[in-house]
């Protein structure tokens, strides 16, 4: 587990003016992405966000300012994917964080500032790619509030499945349809069984939904047949991003019994470009606790450091921007807000559960946490919950519109950030995607 150090101090300042008090990317954050300039035909390479700029790691590498492990880490982080950098592990990640912090700190020498200034690219001038070659994508289901809300719609008498409180449930997802934020997607076609009908129909999804999730990326791999113990799980997690597990509810609910989600989930999954490292998130860790009358985790899913600091307080919000919003230049309408701290299982427990049978995780694999819904109705992380299965209209106050499910032209925008007294606020930026009409 990461410990706090001088890179977390609230008083730390950067010579990059826009980083001071930046809502997402002050010097205390230093998240990674893969980017290139929008213009020209540049190669993809790693970058680090600082204020409104991207620090171009390939350009920095060419300057030869670093040495030792930090230089080796910079070499891997400047590549077109971050898989090799993630495989290096905590010691290398930490070395590069310290080195980048020193280069960007207001105490850096004039010569250093001049050299590094040449490696900055305004974020408005770049586009992003997926940060890794994602070999595998797994999606968990770890919010008890989401499980109860959705369970009530499917099984009103028995909303929570018997296994939920005993293990972090997941399914193996589809890596090929994971896209970077900003990529639009077609409303999926598929088969559904409308209520009150006797035969299924084939057509465009009528119940299109989002799922507010976080994703995390696997660092060092584990060998096939060698589980990762819970105490070691944090060292296998590089960092986190925002994730939208777009869902075709009508297709999903008809097809998923008995083998789980298939076409209802595999048409698109959006992730934010910036990965916030677990070291940057260290100040926002908090105890993992279970109510006394709930089952406590079995021994292999229970461990002192997970109990002490396994949970993370990450604030999250969901907004819809419709065609009407864009036409009238209105800001997107916020429809939900919650925190990741309410999840029933921690990221470490998810990683350990994934490997306990011997499954080998690979560096750069993406793992979704499952929909994040908080304890109150306004904290729901999917529109099927907010609209109670389509029975209640969700208001979009800025335009006077309403939604039960998503319409063509709707963009769904997630934002995530961490705030705590005594520490600088850091953020994930945003994750967005726009629904295009189906091709029938
Ligand atoms: Ca999901």
Number of strands: 26
Into how many domains do the coordinates divide?
2
The CATH architecture of the largest domain can be named as Alpha-Beta Complex
Shape: globular
Which bin fits the share of residues in helices? Answer: 10-25%
Q: What is the CATH C level class of the largest domain, in words?
A: Alpha Beta
User: Looking at CATH, which topology of the largest domain would you report?
Assistant: Fumarylacetoacetate hydrolase, domain 2
Largest sheet: 8 strands, mixed
Fourth CATH level, the homologous superfamily of the largest domain: Fumarylacetoacetase-like, C-terminal domain
Q: How is the quaternary structure best described?
A: single chain
Structural class: alpha+beta
Question: What is the C-alpha radius of gyration, as a whole number of Å?
Answer: 22 Å
Q: Report the sheet-strand fraction.
A: 25-35%
> Any low-confidence stretches, pLDDT <50, length ≥5?
none
Mean of residue pLDDT values: 97
Tally of helical runs? 12
End-to-end Cα distance:
50 Å
Bound small-molecule species: calcium ion
Per-chain topology:
Layout: E1 32-37, E2 45-50, E3 53-56, H1 57-63, H2 68-77, H3 83-88, H4 90-104, H5 110-117, E4 120-122, E5 126-129, E6 137-141, H6 144-154, E7 169-172, E8 178-180, E9 185-186, E10 189-192, E11 201-204, E12 208-209, E13 212-218, E14 237-244, E15 247-248, H7 249-255, E16 269-271, E17 276-277, H8 278-281, E18 285-286, H9 304-309, E19 311-312, E20 315-321, H10 323-327, E21 333-339, H11 347-355, E22 366-368, H12 383-386, E23 394-396, E24 401-403, E25 411-418, E26 426-436
Parallel strand pairs: 6-22, 8-16, 9-26
Antiparallel strand pairs: 1-2, 1-5, 2-3, 3-4, 6-7, 10-11, 12-15, 13-14, 13-22, 14-16, 14-17, 18-19, 20-21, 20-25, 23-24, 25-26
The structure holds calcium ion.
């Amino acid at each position: 587990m990461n410990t706090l150090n001088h890179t977390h101090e609230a008083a730390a300042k950067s010579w990059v003016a826009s980083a001071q008090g930046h809502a997402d990317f002050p010097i205390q954050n230093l998240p990674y992405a893969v980017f290139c300039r929008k213009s020209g035909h540049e190669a993809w390479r790693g970058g680090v966000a600082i204020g409104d700029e991207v620090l171009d790691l390939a350009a920095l590498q060419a300057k030869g300012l670093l040495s030792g492990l930090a230089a080796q880490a910079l070499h891997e982080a400047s590549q077109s994917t971050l898989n090799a950098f993630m495989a290096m592990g905590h010691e290398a990640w930490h070395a590069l964080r310290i080195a980048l912090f020193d280069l960007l700190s207001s105490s850096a020498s004039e010569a250093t500032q001049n050299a590094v200034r040449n490696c900055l690219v305004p974020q408005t001038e770049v586009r992003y790619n997926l940060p890794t070659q994602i070999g595998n994508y797994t999606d968990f289901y770890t919010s008890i509030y989401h499980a109860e809300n959705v369970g009530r719609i499917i099984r009103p008498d028995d909303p929570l499945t018997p296994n939920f409180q005993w293990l972090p449930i997941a399914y193996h997802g589809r890596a090929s349809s994971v896209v970077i934020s900003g990529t639009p997607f077609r409303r999926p076609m598929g088969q559904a069984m409308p209520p009150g009908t006797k035969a299924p129909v084939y057509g465009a999804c009528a119940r299109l939904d989002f799922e507010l999730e976080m994703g995390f990326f696997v660092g060092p791999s584990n060998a096939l047949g060698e589980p990762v113990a819970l105490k070691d799980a944090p060292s296998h997690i590089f960092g986190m991003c925002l994730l939208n597990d777009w869902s075709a509810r009508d297709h999903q609910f008809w097809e998923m019994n008995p083998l789980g989600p298939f076409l209802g989930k595999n048409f698109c999954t959006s992730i934010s470009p910036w990965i916030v490292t677990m070291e940057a998130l260290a100040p926002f860790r908090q105890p993992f606790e279970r109510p006394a009358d709930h089952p406590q985790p079995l021994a292999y899913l229970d461990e002192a450091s997970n109990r002490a600091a396994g949970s993370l307080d990450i604030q999250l919000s969901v907004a819809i921007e419709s065609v009407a919003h864009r036409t009238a230049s209105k800001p997107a309408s916020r429809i939900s807000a919650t925190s990741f701290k309410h999840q029933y299982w921690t990221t470490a427990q998810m990683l350990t559960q994934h490997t306990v049978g011997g499954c080998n995780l690979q560096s750069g694999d993406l793992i979704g946490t499952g929909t994040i819904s908080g304890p109150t109705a306004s904290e729901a992380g999917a529109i099927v919950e907010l609209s109670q299965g389509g029975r209640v209209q969700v208001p979009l106050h800025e335009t006077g519109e309403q939604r039960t499910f998503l319409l063509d032209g709707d963009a769904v925008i997630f934002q995530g950030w961490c705030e705590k007294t005594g520490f600088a606020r850091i953020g994930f930026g945003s994750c967005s995607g726009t629904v295009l009409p189906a091709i029938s």
